[in-house]
């Protein structure tokens, strides 16, 4: 059996290549069809979003060819927390350009003084004095966030709840956090960085602010220039909501009023829009699968090491969106607001020789 990493990949140019001969891709046609027939893929419905009709998409690829698609592969919608993987990549490009080390204190780049809304948020005060980029990035293997920021979104925080939850569950805010009931006021490091791990969109928002200062560019432009242009995604085919847009829309998720209330200023720095680093990338399933193929090839694209593997990760979004890639099988997936798909693909569908 040939290891997948040594098998050829046909990188898509403007359009994905279609599946063609499944057997030549190491896929057992009968088992693949049986797997597909077992699925019930449909538009997701999360916290009041409406994805009935064809307002959703799924694309699955193998070695650079599409082997399955459902819904509308070109349908574009904000993909919730999937955008965290894009923020991770924006930091990786900065590190590889020699601009920053993950263990540098964030306040050597930006303190936020005079820009953040309250003095206790300044990055040269309180627990923030020990805050590094690595703390805000979290662990690639656990997707944890180690900066001591406990707020995930405004809706849950007001209910004295915290991260890693759904509307059907209730988790108390952690004991180490000072809860005032105001997600805007409470978005700061409540504990010494590195001592408490909790999934926090609030911490990633602070990361996106600091990254914008570090790059002195709009983070969408950073990714357009350094990554997307190299994997065939033109600037007009994807977007990234500014954090302010999420903050200002009380019905961002209709059943979660005030979801974005934790997203605090500044919303621009030196005239540059700060993108919603915690998520909200607008993109199609077909293009998410391109990013997933980059994850599967560990940062290589058509002979070029576009980005180091350390800065690539798959991620899911609460609204049923997903991007991921598997180096072992050279498969990738892009899902926009859909549910009912199984990832990773079951191993029995592959018939490598």
- Low-pLDDT segments: 163-169
Radius of gyration: 20 Å
User: Got a strand count?
Assistant: 14
Distance between the termini: 5 Å
- Strand sequence of the main sheet, in spatial order? 3-2-13-12-11
**Global outline:** globular
- Helix tally equals 8
Fraction in beta strands: 5-15%
Helix content: 10-25%
* Secondary-structure element string: HEEEEHHHHHEHEEEHEEEEEE
Report the major sheet.
5 strands, antiparallel
Count of separate structural domains: 2
What average pLDDT do the residues reach?
Answer: 92
| Coarse structural class | alpha+beta
What do these coordinates show?
The chain is of the alpha+beta class. It has 2 domains: 118 residues, no CATH class; 153 residues, no CATH class. The chain is built from 8 helices and 14 strands. The strands form 5 sheets. The protein has a 5-stranded antiparallel sheet with strand order 3-2-13-12-11. A 3-stranded antiparallel sheet has the order 4-8-5. Helix 2 runs parallel beside helix 5 and helix 2 packs across helix 6. The longest helix is centred in the middle third of the chain and has 15 residues. The radius of gyration is 20 Å and the shape is globular.
């Amino acid at each position: 059996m040939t290891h997948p990493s040594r098998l050829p990949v046909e990188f898509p140019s403007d359009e994905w290549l279609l599946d063609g001969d499944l057997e030549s891709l190491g896929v057992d046609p009968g088992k693949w069809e049986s797997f597909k027939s077992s699925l019930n893929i449909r538009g997701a419905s999360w916290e009041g979003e409406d994805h009935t009709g064809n307002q959703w998409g799924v694309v699955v690829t193998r070695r650079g060819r599409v082997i399955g698609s459902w819904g509308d592969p070109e349908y574009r919608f904000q993909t919730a927390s999937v955008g965290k993987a894009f923020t991770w990549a924006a930091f990786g490009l900065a590190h590889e350009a020699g601009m920053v080390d993950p263990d540098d204190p964030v306040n050597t780049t930006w303190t936020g003084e005079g820009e953040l809304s309250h003095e206790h948020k300044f990055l040269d005060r309180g627990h923030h004095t020990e805050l590094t980029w690595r703390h805000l990035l979290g662990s690639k293997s656990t997707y944890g966030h180690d900066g001591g920021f406990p707020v995930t979104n405004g809706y849950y925080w007001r209910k004295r709840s915290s991260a890693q939850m759904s509307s059907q569950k209730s988790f108390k805010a952690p004991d180490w956090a000072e809860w005032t009931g105001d997600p805007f006021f409470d978005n700061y490091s409540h504990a010494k960085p590195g001592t408490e791990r909790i999934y926090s969109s609030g911490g990633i928002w602070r990361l996106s602010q600091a990254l914008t200062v570090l790059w002195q560019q709009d983070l969408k432009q950073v990714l357009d220039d350094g990554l997307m242009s190299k994997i065939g995604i033109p600037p007009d085919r994807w977007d990234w909501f500014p954090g302010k847009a999420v903050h200002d829309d009380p019905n961002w998720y209709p059943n979660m009023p005030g979801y974005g209330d934790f997203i605090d200023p500044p919303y621009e720095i030196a005239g540059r829009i700060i993108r919603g680093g915690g998520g909200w990338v607008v993109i199609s399933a077909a293009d998410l699968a391109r990013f997933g193929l980059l994850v599967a090839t560990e940062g290589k694209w058509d002979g070029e090491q576009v980005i180091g593997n350390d800065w690539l990760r798959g991620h899911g979004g609460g609204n049923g969106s997903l991007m991921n890639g598997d180096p072992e099988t050279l498969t990738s997936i892009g899902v926009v607001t859909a549910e009912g798909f199984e990832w990773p693909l079951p191993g029995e569908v592959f018939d490598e020789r």
